[in-house]
Each structure stands twice: as structure tokens, then as C-alpha cells.
Design goal:
mainly alpha
Length: about 425
């Protein structure tokens, strides 16, 4: 990780530990909220698929709303306290514990409330942990290497999620004899994905807590840190005009992130409904997209440090809009694959460079608070993209028309991003 114009702040082992945390926690969204446990809930625990889908959606949305409301405040508290790893540790343990307890969710409607509560709690802890994890970024390396570290971490995160998913499929889901003699009739092979993710996170998160340095404590008690954090957040909101460039960026991020989130939520539905993909093809498609996104995040890490995160994001969002337009227009499964895989290449850079730009824009003494607001910008309008897509799909009786609404979010986000300062090295 050597190179660049500034001295390296953290030994390579500490940087590797930070990146490895992305590998560790990416197992949760990949296995629990996207591919396996969410499908198990809607198929086997809920009373029916439609009800289960809506229940799962409401639970995850409510946990995201809690993140949006609380993350700026907790970020301000951590900035006053100085240290971030204790907060990250607490939310990591909370996510691990809630994930492990998903084993108790048996395939019966009587377990709906418990399954939703645990999944929402785990998702809340996962998202809150990311606030403190991201805030560590600008203190680990010089500004000339922030893009590389962010991109490498994000790329390793995609790899970790896929590795855990592959292990899940081979050892539990797509085998006649699941490991440990798990009983398929009582869905033990699917319930076991919760404990598997918990163990995965617990093992691979350890290096960060052992090797990666934290900012020093400022000697404040927790009560005083909470008091000052509340006052600081209120003061920040009152003086929002002093941070106009950050506000413009957060609004731009809100728009194109909404496009990405909606793409993630409905990409598989579009592939199945419009191009006739079956479940096995959807799993393969999801894996392929994650591979290209991870490779894109890692490859564009150098580009971020070279031309700056703003330009990197603009390239990625422009490519997402262009390829997305093609995917709305093409006919046939082969052409869908041909343009969907390149689209994945630009998903990772859009995410990794967004974190990098926030790290460069945030005042050093307010980094965690700003990453809390960054989390808010990614969650505040989480309802908007799916709602607009659903309305247009029904109005035009066309999945293509509904998916086309995602392009609007990319275009608006791109236009707003043009007004943000071009912060580089």
C-alpha cells in the first residue's frame, strides 16, 4: 500500500485489518437480507409470499429509518469521545447476536414477529456499525491514498459476501445432505445461515480490533459525550449554510444512491419478469453482478486517487445511466447478460468513491457526525425509488417503464454532483 505524496499513517497490517472488516460484515447483507434468509422468511415463515414480502420490506425499512434518525447523533457523540472502535464493537456484537438468534425462526407463522424483529435489529446494527467503520478511513492513510483504501475495502467486501454465499449454497442450501446432519424438513439448513453469518463476522472482524489503530480518547465520560454530541448536532443543523458544499453532496448522493438501492431491490424481479430468468439463473446473475462490482471497486481505487472521487463518481453514474437505458430497451436474455455485467463494474466505484469523497469533504473534528449524515442521505428517501417504480409500472403496465424511473435518479444525482467541489489530494 505504499506510494503517494503523503506519509503512510498506518502499518499495512492495520490497513488490511480495516479492509478485512468489509469482508466480514458483507456476509450479512448478502446472505441474510438479499439472497437466502429473506427468501426463507417469505417462502416458509410468513403466511404467504405477498404478505411475507411486504412484512420483510416494512421491517427493513423501519430499521433503515432508525439508522437515518440516530446515526448523525451517535456520530457526533463519537467525535467528542474520540474513539470509534468501541462503538463499532458494540454494533458488531449486536449484529452477530441477532444474526445467530435467527436459528430460532422455525418455518411457522408463529415465528413471524421474532424473525422480523431479529432481522431488523441485525440490519440496524449492521448499518450503524458502518458509520463508525467508514469514519475511520481518513485517519488511516494520507489523503493521496483514501480512494485506494476505500476501493480495496469495498472490493474485498464484495468478495467476502460472495465467499460466504458460496459456502452457504454448497454446505447448506443446494445439497441433499447439509453439513452437521441438519434436517431439511424443519428448515434447519436455512435457519443455520444466521449462525453461519454470525461466526463469519465474529472471526473476520477480529483483525480490525487487534491491528487497526483508533483515534485517541478525549477523556470525556459517556454522559458528557452524549451532551456535547447533542449540542454539536443541533449547532450543525443551525449553521447548515456553513457546510453548503457538503449539503449539496449529500443531496446528490441521496439521489444516485436511491437509484442504486432501487436497482438492487428490483433488478432480480426485472430479470425474472421481463427476461424469463428462473431462480437458479437469478442466483448466478446475482453472483456475477457482485463479482463485476467488486472488481470495479478495486480497479477504480487508483482512479479515485488519480482524478479525484467526484470525477470517479460522475464516470460511474454516467455509465450506470447509459447502460441502464440500454437494458430497458434490449430484447433477449443474451443481450441482457451482455450489458448487465458491464453495468456491475460501475456499481462498486460509485459506492467506494462516495465514501472516499465524504472522507475528503468532512471536517476532521466532525468526521463521524458527517458519516452519520452520509448514512442519513442514503436512507432518508429509501421509500421514494420503489414507490415511483411501482406507480409507473402499474400506470404503464410495463416493467420496462418502471425500471426506466431509476435512470431519472441517476441523471438528477449526476447534475447535482456537478455543483460539489472537486476535492482531490
Amino acid at each position: 500500500m505504499a506510494g503517494g505524496g503523503e506519509s503512510q499513517k498506518t502499518p499495512a497490517l492495520g490497513l488490511f485489518g480495516w479492509c478485512l472488516y468489509d469482508w466480514a460484515n458483507s456476509a450479512f447483507p448478502t446472505v441474510i437480507t438479499t439472497f437466502v434468509f429473506s427468501a426463507y422468511f417469505t417462502e416458509a415463515i410468513a403466511t404467504d409470499k405477498i404478505t411475507g414480502t411486504s412484512q420483510w420490506g416494512y421491517a427493513i425499512s423501519l430499521s433503515g429509518l432508525a439508522v437515518a434518525l440516530l446515526s448523525p447523533f451517535f456520530g457526533a457523540v463519537a467525535d467528542h469521545g474520540g474513539r470509534r472502535k468501541p462503538w463499532l464493537f458494540v454494533f458488531t456484537i449486536l449484529c452477530i447476536g441477532a444474526s445467530a438468534l435467527l436459528w430460532l425462526a422455525q418455518p411457522d407463522a408463529g415465528f413471524v414477529v421474532m424473525a422480523l424483529t431479529l432481522a431488523a435489529l441485525a440490519n440496524f446494527a449492521f448499518e450503524m456499525g458502518m458509520v463508525f467503520y467508514n469514519a475511520m478511513l481518513p485517519d488511516l492513510v494520507g489523503r493521496d491514498r483514501i480512494g485506494r483504501l476505500s476501493g480495496w475495502g469495498w472490493g474485498l467486501g464484495y468478495a467476502g459476501g460472495l465467499a460466504c454465499l458460496a459456502l452457504t449454497l454448497v454446505a447448506f442450501v443446494q445439497t441433499e445432505s447439509p453439513v452437521f446432519g441438519l434436517d431439511k424438513d424443519s428448515a434447519e439448513h436455512l435457519r443455520a445461515t444466521g449462525p453461519l453469518v454470525a461466526v463469519w463476522m465474529a472471526v473476520f472482524a477480529v483483525p480490525l480490533f487487534l491491528w487497526t489503530p483508533d483515534t485517541p480518547s478525549r477523556g470525556l465520560g459517556l454522559k458528557e459525550a452524549f451532551r456535547r454530541g447533542r449540542e454539536t448536532l443541533i449547532d450543525t443543523l443551525r449553521r447548515v449554510r456553513d457546510y453548503a458544499h457538503i449539503v449539496r453532496y449529500l443531496i446528490a448522493h441521496m439521489m444516485y444512491a436511491e437509484g442504486l438501492n432501487t436497482l438492487f431491490a428490483f433488478g432480480g424481479i426485472y430479470a425474472a419478469g421481463t427476461f424469463g430468468m428462473d431462480f437458479s439463473e437469478l442466483i448466478l446473475f446475482g453472483i456475477a453482478i457482485n463479482v463485476t462490482a467488486g472488481l470495479g471497486a478495486a480497479a477504480f481505487a487508483w482512479v479515485d486517487d488519480w482524478i479525484g472521487p467526484k470525477r470517479t463518481i460522475m464516470i460511474a453514474v454516467a455509465a450506470l445511466a447509459g447502460l441502464g437505458l440500454v437494458l430497458v430497451l434490449v430484447e433477449g436474455k443474451a443481450l441482457f447478460w451482455a450489458f448487465a455485467l458491464p453495468l456491475g463494474i460501475f456499481v462498486g466505484p460509485a459506492q467506494a468513491a462516495s465514501r472516499s469523497l465524504m472522507a475528503r469533504l468532512a471536517p476532521p473534528e466532525m468526521t463521524t457526525e458527517m458519516f452519520g449524515l452520509f448514512a442519513l442521505s442514503g436512507k432518508a428517501t429509501a421509500f421514494l425509488g420503489p414507490a415511483v417504480l411501482a406507480w409507473v409500472t402499474v400506470a404503464f403496465a410495463s416493467q420496462r417503464a418502471g425500471m426506466a424511473t431509476i435512470l431519472v435518479f441517476f441523471v438528477v444525482g449526476f447534475a447535482l454532483l456537478m455543483t460539489v467541489p472537486d476535492v482531490r489530494r
